């Protein structure tokens, strides 16, 4: 009930690791629910966010002050159940959950504080966008990869491949951010960086100036310029594709019945994933038009910004 897609993936994970990953997800979802709640003041959020790694293992802890519109508020209302189950885990898994939660909570708290105290609605630079995605998703990739190593199902050194696991998580997060633009905008949450959507070249290509606010993207008459911005966002996320494919190639557990976490249940090996990526890359290539300021990057695969 708290995940559109992750719950299906968890069910494919082998043995008790499914329970570990489920609890990991619920802890981070609880943390994210606090961070996302626009009804909570910064003064209220800051201590909760920065202590969440401790609260997650505090027997009996719950939180009942989420806004009525928060879809996952019930998770926090019944969070004592999660706390109890976290404390039942083997320490090799519990310690990873606590460590990743602590890293993530401080990043989230920093971004929440910046938004609340500077009236800045947007990440300004691609670097800031990457950092946010690292905190909310790259760290998820790190935690999962460390689980695979700690379980003995993957080699020890896999857990040290932080650049690849970070890219994997960031690519998934950026994909969601592109897809959820309008839903987020309606909730007054903006994740697209101004360095991309505010580029002058997109306005020039349409005979006008750059966007000044993100909400202009869905105003009537701005469709073409918004399309070039979206294309720029796609180019940006494709910059993580090679790392993500390399990450999948490192996994020993490729058999779907063995629960390779990132592998679709219908696929047996990274080669098949690569073929699917190739097919979709070709579709993107075929749809690219010279009028798009991102055209050369799209057709030549120059995705690293």
From TrEMBL:
Residues annotated as signal peptide: none
Organism domain of life: Eukaryota
Pfam families: SQS_PSY
GO biological process, one term: farnesyl diphosphate metabolic process
Record key words, sorted: Transferase
Requisite cofactors: Mg(2+)
GO molecular function: squalene synthase [NAD(P)H] activity
Entry EC no(s): 2.5.1.21
A Gene Ontology term for the protein's cellular component: endoplasmic reticulum membrane
Entry similarity comment: Belongs to the phytoene/squalene synthase family.
Protein name per its UniProtKB record: squalene synthase
Organism: Grifola frondosa (Maitake)
